[in-house]
């Protein structure tokens, strides 16, 4: 499926039948607009819009074979749950018996059998999510569109919602697109992740590729949580860029496409790829680079220790290390040297804005 909308810088997203893709963006408003364009609530700029091989650009929303789960489109309060689920079926002119059988099937699928005659106001937040999912699945759509579907759910309810989707979607073999602003939701969704920035998809890949080989600074920083260090490219040898940072120190990283010698750049390195050394200064061998830093803060985050360092130019750099019961974390003010393998950092041409 491809949805190129000129209003979103010719956004194109291709998906295979039965695939799950999460589209991650910083702005919920941007995701809502994209949802409206896909479903036909808004008229897009000229461009091909295809769903399962069918041109849908001129079709009204109710003829697009898209099931939408969105808090912006709640259940009708004047109808009970079963009647809400029957609405999209009645729109297809199905007979009463077929509608009733389909509604009962949907209630069973989403574990809402006992809630059929309840009013929407009587449903919990978790039951409301499942009801919206059942309504979206009612007409057997070609695409299931989940627009920030977990908003308002408590952590335990989110986990149960993830489990339900993880069971239902493969069983139904339905193509599903999740629109979210939450990285954790995108990761738990279990498929490829597309990163939306400035109205375009800057990278779509599996999570490991996004973390280890980001194609854009917004992916490295916004998705991967990388430190972003401005600098100047000194040279590029065998795809490894040597960068002079603002404090005069040198560091290395993989040269991204378009990076040129003597040009300003942004060196991105994830906190868990940085090794801190406390104690006497180390002597470096050829090709090794160490950054002098001073520890500012130590936070125990449960599964890792978060260390915030101050570099010589006054900028901060975050390091994360596994907690070790046998070691006490150093105190703020401790001097350290920081290092990482060149293959664990990426140098990008300096973006206009991050």
Describe the protein in words.
By secondary structure, this protein is α/β, with parallel strands linked by helices. It folds into two domains: 207 residues, 3-Layer(aba) Sandwich (Rossmann fold); 130 residues, Beta Barrel (OB fold (Dihydrolipoamide Acetyltransferase, E2P)), CATH 2.40.50.140. The protein is built from eight helices and 18 strands. The strands form four sheets. It has a six-stranded mixed β-sheet, sandwiched between helices. Strands 9-10-11-18-12 form a five-stranded mixed beta barrel. A hairpin with a 2-residue loop joins strand 7 and strand 8. Helix 2 crosses helix 3. The chain is elongated, with a radius of gyration of 25 Å. The two termini are 30 Å apart. 35% of the residues are buried. The N terminus is likely disordered.
Quick overview:
Helices cover 25% and strands 29% of the residues. Helix 2 crosses helix 3.
Topology:
Layout: E1 20-24, H1 28-39, E2 50-51, E3 54-55, E4 66-69, H2 81-90, H3 96-109, H4 125-137, E5 143-147, H5 155-172, E6 175-180, H6 183-189, E7 192-197, E8 200-205, H7 207-212, H8 217-223, E9 227-237, E10 240-245, E11 250-255, E12 264-269, E13 275-278, E14 291-300, E15 305-311, E16 316-321, E17 335-339, E18 345-349
């Amino acid at each position: 499926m491809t949805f190129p909308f000129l209003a979103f810088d010719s956004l194109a997203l291709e998906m295979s039948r039965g695939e799950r893709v999460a589209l991650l963006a910083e702005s919920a408003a941007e995701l809502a607009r994209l949802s409206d364009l896909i479903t036909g609530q808004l008229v897009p700029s000229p461009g091909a819009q295809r769903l399962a091989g069918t041109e849908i650009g001129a079709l009204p929303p109710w003829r697009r074979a898209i099931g939408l789960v969105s808090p912006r489109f709640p259940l009708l309060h004047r109808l009970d749950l079963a009647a809400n689920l029957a609405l999209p079926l009645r729109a297809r002119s199905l007979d009463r018996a077929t509608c009733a059988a389909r509604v009962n099937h949907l209630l069973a699928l989403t574990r809402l059998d006992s809630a059929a005659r309840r009013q929407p106001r009587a449903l919990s937040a978790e039951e409301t999510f499942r009801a919206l999912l059942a309504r979206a699945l009612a007409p057997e759509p070609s695409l299931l569109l989940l627009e920030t579907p977990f908003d308002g759910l408590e952590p335990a309810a989110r986990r149960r919602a993830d489990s339900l989707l993880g069971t239902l979607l493969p069983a139904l073999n339905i193509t599903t697109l999740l629109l979210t602003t939450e990285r954790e939701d995108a990761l738990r969704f279990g498929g490829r992740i597309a990163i939306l920035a400035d109205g375009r998809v800057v990278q779509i890949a599996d999570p490991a590729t996004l973390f280890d080989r980001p194609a854009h600074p917004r992916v490295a920083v916004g998705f991967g949580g990388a430190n972003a260090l401005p600098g100047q490219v000194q040279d590029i040898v065998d795809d490894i860029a040597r960068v002079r940072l603002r404090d005069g120190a040198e560091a290395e990283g993989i040269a991204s496409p378009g990076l040129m010698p003597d040009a300003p750049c942004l060196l991105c390195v994830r906190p868990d790829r940085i090794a801190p050394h406390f104690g006497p200064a180390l002597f470096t061998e050829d090709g090794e680079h160490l950054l002098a830093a001073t520890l500012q803060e130590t936070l125990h985050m449960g599964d890792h220790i978060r260390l915030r360092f101050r570099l010589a130019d006054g900028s901060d750099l975050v390091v994360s290390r596994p907690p070790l019961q046998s070691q006490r974390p150093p105190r703020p003010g401790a001097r350290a040297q920081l290092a990482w393998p060149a293959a664990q950092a990426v140098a990008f041409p300096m973006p206009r804005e991050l």
